[in-house]
Amino acid sequence: MPTGFGFPFGISAAGTIAPHADDVGDLRGQIVQVLFTTPGERVNQPEFGCGLLNLVFDPDNSILAAATEFTIGQALTRWLGDQLVVTGVDVASADGTITVEVAYLSRHDVAQREVRVSFR
């Protein structure tokens, strides 16, 4: 049975804090948290995250995309390495939308999965 708070945080029909729905959703939520948390944002873990939202203000070029892919892979390995193995990261930009695809192998059930996030 999953434990902990659900992501995104929610309230159940009974009025209690909604727990994680499943391990797959839990891991996906943790990946999204690492991607969108800016280092320095968490008081007790100032190095947590990779600052993906900062890309919105950076120039669009292949060098930046490669550096971002590396940074994402390193951050996910550092913070979630006991739960997953990153098998690929792809950062693409088109028409003002940045799309990040993370392919990973779950250590829990040895299943290959992907997370794709897009933002402007």
Q: Could you give the topology of this structure?
A:
Elements: H1 23-36, H2 62-80, E1 84-94, E2 97-106, E3 112-119
Antiparallel strand pairs: 1-2, 2-3
Helix pairs in contact: 1-2
Q: What labels would you give this structure?
A:
single chain, 120 residues, alpha+beta, three-stranded antiparallel sheet, 3 strands, 28% helix, 24% strand
Structure in words:
- The chain is an alpha+beta fold and 120 residues long.
- The chain contains two helices and three strands, in the order ααβββ.
- It has helices at residues 23-36, 62-80; strands spanning 84-94, 97-106, 112-119.
- A three-stranded antiparallel beta sheet has the order 1-2-3, with helices on one face.
- Strand 1 (84-94) and strand 2 (97-106) form a beta hairpin.
- Helix 1 (23-36) packs across helix 2.
- The protein is globular and about 50 Å long.
- The chain starts with 22 loop residues before the first helix and ends with a strand.
Category from helices, strands and their pairing: alpha+beta
Average pLDDT figure: 84
Rounded to the nearest angstrom, the distance between the terminal CA atoms is: 36 Å
**How much strand?**
15-25%
Short description:
The protein is of the alpha+beta class and 120 residues long. Helices cover 28% and strands 24% of the residues.
